[in-house]
Amino acid sequence: MAALDERYADIREGVRDLCTQFPAPYFREVDERRGYPEDFVTALTRAGWLAALIPQEYGGSGLGLSEASVVMEEINRCGGNAGACHGQMYNMGTLIRHGSEEQKRRYLPKIAKGELRLQSMAVTEPTAGTDTTSIRTFAAKKGERYVVNGQKVWISRVQHSDLMILLARTTPLAESAKKSDGMSIFLVDLREAIGKGLEVRPIANMVNHETNELFIENLEIPVENRIGEEGRGFRYILDGLNAERAIIAAECVGDGYWFIEKVAKYAGERVVFGRPIGQNQGVQFPIAEAYIELEAANLMRFRACELFDAGRPCGAEANMAKHLAAKASWQAAEACLQFHGGYGFAAEYDIERKFRETRLYQVAPISTNLILAYVAEHVLGLPRSF
Ligand SMILES: Cc1cc2nc3c(=O)[nH]c(=O)nc-3n(C[C@H](O)[C@H](O)[C@H](O)COP(=O)(O)OP(=O)(O)OC[C@H]3O[C@@H](n4cnc5c(N)ncnc54)[C@H](O)[C@@H]3O)c2cc1C
What are the b/e assignments for 252-262, b being 16+ CB within 10 Å? Predict the structure, then answer.
């Protein structure tokens, strides 16, 4: 459909080939039973796609964010939901950039082989919400261990991951020079932690997204599982967020193309009042409008990825890409649902499922308002609003 499609043709073809074994009805069935697409994630791992960002020396393919984002885009474009496994792509960067050589040697080759999964990152807390610096989960250092107490919410894929990155305060907020100081990140081995200081309670939710409340009581984490320096965890997390934004933008682009291809085909075929509904401008224009927005979002997504891969600052571009793509995929979803008439609501068309899935991205991992606030403050130089 779009010229940009030709970029990374090999990757697109490879992922599409794999996705033909897991077509939309597979994801529909998983959605209906609120299950986890285990076979799909296993196949994706075995084919090496989830190790795209792991450097070759640790057994991965050493690709860049642009390529990794294409993998995720194609999954959604084929009718699937990359949300089941996208955590591995962006959590990886935190370990690669800030982990010690020993940590990388211990975990990365096993993650690349599919023996371990690093799918979860625990940041959000019930009382802090978007105001991450006011988190209360606290890790107190006691000899060679940290003892952690606190609570997290909306922590995804914990039941289908072996490892989780945890953000906790290691210095109380009142004693930190800056609000963003005094937090650290840890690699939690979920196989050991669950039932021994970590309780996981699933949250039933609108999307088929395995997400949970975490109750942490005297959870012990060995000092060697801290990633990077104590007190710098918030910076490390922020560092990884640009990759997360760009990956989510790519997923939204994939969703958007899926919706537009589906509705354009339907509008060309569905005959009402003796002509295809797509012959009416009232039907054509919203689809064309959504397509234009999507193409623009796609350009910004590649701009963000290219800057990231070149090691250049890309906070503005990554945030804007996520914002544009989440809005464009939602616009495409609206048009797709609307012009399928009643059939859009039938589960067998997959539209209502993907409509729910793509809506998430205007709230998580960062809400649209917070992106607007970021651009206002950091790009336009306006006073900080919170
Ligand atoms: C399905 C799902 C999966 C998730 N997975 C994870 C995960 O794996 N790990 C993780 O750590 N978190 C996860 N999250 C949490 C997600 O990142 C947060 O829900 C999101 O960042 C918003 O935080 P909040 O829900 O606390 O909303 P709040 O911070 O309470 O905000 C509520 C609303 O108020 C608006 N708002 C708040 N402050 C301002 C302001 N100053 N100006 C303007 N508007 C404002 C926000 O934009 C938002 O619309 C997930 C969430 C969902 C729904």
Answer: bbbbbbbbbeb
